[in-house]
Design brief:
Chain lengths: 193, 193, 193
């Protein structure tokens, strides 16, 4: 008799557990997920873009490769560079010094896509190769460059960043005419494997 | 004695629960996931692309910025525009009227990549800025433009669309020569945070 | 008395289970995930890129559409093609024979982004259309083409590859001057629906 009471007391627990299990399972398969409170990995990195302007072939890390019919590929186009496509291979550093030892390269392209203000669309990857990290992180998104901060999406990764996802906050850390800019990138990864 | 029976009756339950837990855990870490039955968020939006053709500089929202050696950047290339790259900053509206108040901009690029038919590869983002939504959604994929519907991938997002993923169905809602087209985009998000 | 012992013996189990449940739940919502041991789907495919060089208009599946100011769109640029953007629509085959029946097309673009070595950034999709698979897989990433193998990210998919993610390993299977190359792609998908 006492034993059966033990079992009865057990039943609500079982129900509670099954309920919790159902919640857990449905969290896994349904589409509305709890927003992660904090990243599983954070990186603060800087990259340095030196745009070819006809005079700096030796130092340039980027070049205009496409432009609209009314512009050319040596000078950034009028109307806030609308239509210019730039390919780059920029050094990544841990601080804001162009001459610090690079920990990798930022590679890909950006294109200016708005007439009224400086606005870019970015598709690029960080290729990290240091004692800390080896692997790539790929980014996609829009960059309204005059905003103090702007977020782009981290859509994938390889190596130490296998399958990662997250958000990166871009900040213009320096801007010198149409020749040099430096971006600070706060990479916040919310899926790490 | 009764108590030990209570405990024994409990053991199969424990095993069942552990088994269920293992299933749940493996659902979490294994790779084959249950296909979500319905999106966690759906948006139906239209965007309007007015391509620069040498005559419409004031209204154009898009421009050819690259083309193959045999073509130029004012007129879309022969062979179904193969090789043309177009940069755009198009208004997004809630209905099919170009003059409706925009809720955001579609920004990025498309490139025509097939000689035999009109076929595009897309990389772009929606930048939504309305009372309903603030944030970006990024898209990647192929667009066989003559198909009634075609799916591209939603690969990331920021703001209200933090880390989102899903599929977007494109439909050509209007097409006027080589100057204007309007796409209806049914965005179906299956991961929302 | 025996019954209450039964219940007491039960309590640690409940705690253990709740603890396990918490772990499971937090695995679901937290960001550090167990690395999947093996892919849920694997594909080994080849694609064939025939670059337009001014003489092969009929056969070419790819064309230079953008280049830096110092180069043109008929001949790949000096400095390891830095700045060249190539648009392609390449046949995909199950083996390394260009003339095997294609199972789909690889469509998108690559851009050479490094002066010192051949290095590309890729944005493209596989459009598969065979009895085995119908759907698209989209890729983003860097391709240091001289490495024996290099990984890019699978960032999305549609159709049979709805919402997929993973990693693809690229290997140069053949390379003939600046006119033809063949890539072997080992697609490893770790999220399948």
């Amino acid at each position: 008799m006492e034993g059966s009471r033990g079992r009865m007391a057990f039943i609500p627990h079982i129900l509670l557990l099954l309920f919790l299990l159902l919640i857990t399972t449905s969290t896994t398969t349904s589409s509305t997920l709890r927003r992660p409170l904090k990243p599983c990995k954070t990186l603060i990195l800087y990259f340095h873009d030196i745009i070819y302007n006809g005079l700096n072939a030796a130092n340039a890390t980027a070049a205009i490769v496409a432009s609209p019919a009314w512009a050319n590929r040596t000078i950034l186009a009028g109307q806030n560079h609308f239509g210019d496509v730039v390919v780059f291979d920029d050094p990544i550093t841990l601080d804001n010094n162009l001459h610090s030892p690079p920990v990798g390269r930022a590679q890909g392209m950006y294109l200016y896509d708005k007439k009224e203000i400086y606005n870019a669309w970015l598709g690029f990857s960080f290729v990290l190769n240091s004692t800390d990290y080896k692997g790539t992180i790929s980014f996609i998104g829009t960059d309204p460059t005059l905003n103090k901060t702007r977020d782009v999406s981290v859509v994938g990764g390889t190596g130490d960043f296998f399958m990662t996802r997250g958000v990166a906050t871009l900040m213009t850390d320096a801007f010198e005419g149409d020749v040099y800019f430096r971006l600070r990138v706060d990479v916040k990864l919310y899926e790490c494997y």
